[in-house]
């Protein structure tokens, strides 16, 4: 998701607060691994190591209904559809699952094809497709037909840690443990240009700017970089400020600010021009 800075800060704080509350109430065996905010801001999807997905009601400050059950191993990633009616989840059981938020039932069957843990899932802007990252590959799934579109997108040499669609849905950006960022053409199903190199450790999160012209990336080298999509050149960074690994990052629509959250629970905002 790409949001204005006030929304981005609120978004990250909501995630951290919900995760902390859930972990405190349900205990360490629950352990929130990933979260996503619904488009209307009323619900948070929670992925946990107890193999389940839960939906947190932001207003009521409680879990909505029961857990979404079906995965047989840790759930590592969750994402709301653009209309907020569905949740996609990716698990260590190598499956992607689509859930109906209202009925809290799985839609259709598990989407199978990956050969290892699924570390990231993302809906396309029109909600028709889900991208998943895992075993050195990215796969694109047709939500309605529940089948993979074309073949896997190959090129990374280690696990893919993060995937997201561009605002127009024509591109996917991926970040990997191989320290590279890659941009993919969804229609042609091929990499655009060359890998974006500069990080010295795993790339853990990537995001497009609101207008789709820039990419922000973060890494376990404790740095954040900004890239120009068209020229594939680095145009900002490295931005530093934490001794802990970064957990998530967002770029403002005007590309003037970045908000990040690190695993030490601290939030940081940078001016991209002054650092």
TrEMBL record:
Presence of the UniProt keyword Repeat in the record: yes
Pfam families documented for this protein: WD40
Domain of life: Eukaryota
Leader sequence residues: 1-20
Protein's name in the database: Uncharacterized protein
Cellular component GO terms held in the UniProt record: transferase complex
Keyword Signal found: yes
InterPro entries in alphabetical order: WD40/YVTN_repeat-like_dom_sf (IPR015943), WD40_PAC1 (IPR020472), WD40_repeat_CS (IPR019775), WD40_repeat_dom_sf (IPR036322), WD40_rpt (IPR001680)
